[in-house]
Amino acid sequence: MTEVAQLQTDHGQQRPAHGSTLDVSREVTGLVFGPLSERSFAITYWDSGVTESPPGDPVFTIVLEHPGALRRMFLLPSELHMAEGYVYGDCDIRGDLSAASLVAGVVRRNLTAPGALPRLIQLLLRLPSSHEHRVNAKRALGTARLALKHTEQRDAAAVRAHYDVGNHFYRLFLDRNMVYSCAYYLTGHETLEEAQVAKFDHICRKLRLQPGDKLLDIGCGWGGLIRHATSHYGVDALGITISPSQAEYARERIAHAGLDERCRVELRDYRSLDGSETFDKVVSVGMAEHVGLSRMPTYFAQAWRLLRPGGLFLNHCITKDREESRTLNKLLPWKDGDFTKKYVFPDGELVRLDVLVEAGLAAGFEARDVECLREHYARTLLEWTHRLEQHEIEAVADVGPQLYRIWRLHMGGGAAGFASGRLTIHQIVFARALADGRIPDLPLSRADLYRS
Fold it and tell me: What is the pTM of this model?
């Protein structure tokens, strides 16, 4: 097959392109996506019977659902608007969504070419416009949107907007312990369930948990880690969350496991703990992303306050590798959007690794161990995406087509982000040393972390 597209009818017969709308649309796709010979994906043009397919088997197919789809997706060219074209049904993506999410980078590069943007606008204005009203699917903050970011009221609303989509929905793609954070693949051959249990053990070993230890889990989710730590390491655990649906589910699972006396969950903000109860070990997995840069000093100061001298604090969260230039983004013809913040994690905020470490040091901690789990999260997100896709009918019936597409794009795009290094994730072990500098629970070597 040459660079010229294969144009086919339902019977597979080649035919020439026809109609000005189709001609203009094909010129637009050539401008934004590049020459057909350089693409790895196919494009189907609504019900025209025309499909452009690259040499070899396409990795995925973009289906333009109506003649005005490209105009809605690119008239105000941005990563966010392109993603919204998928969410609201202007286009469909069939095949590898993780690979499809990388197309935004291709579009950005092509639109920086001299004269590309004026030509694109000129072409798009020749396409039909759609006046169909879109029902906004973004996660609502309700009246809390009027509060300052990262106050207790607004943080609670943001967390509810994300997690209270329903436990039944998360069950469609999470493992049986309902773990919504990066798994740990020891060999790469583990199932998701096995890898999540391995992550629990990896964290418990890093914390050097011992029978009788008092463990605090800040942002405990559905309670999988504290149940594991209680039943396998003999600790007394408290988990806190500000999601009512998570707290309810976690309490039910704890009661069913008969762990009520040594494991409990409270619905409360981390800032509300008054320090009257201190802990031997503190852990926070996937919660710091909700804290916000301005609140990092408060977050680490509270962890320090709640941890006894000689104790360990493990923070596990997504990080970013650099600061983004807002000025540069404003000057580019293609705008990098924040799809995840608008539709998935309201007020979510990633910080750099050095910022996290510095905030911990400023609170009085000593940083003892840093581990990057980037490849592990890429694999976890791919597994979640595949599981969700396998349950598409159930998911759409449960939350509707828009939310299904939002989560599919969020997780598939996240997998590509971690695989490419655009996103990363770190576990940091901090210690609160005794007055004489000792940290009794830490051995001289980390070899014990990797013993069976």
Answer: 0.90
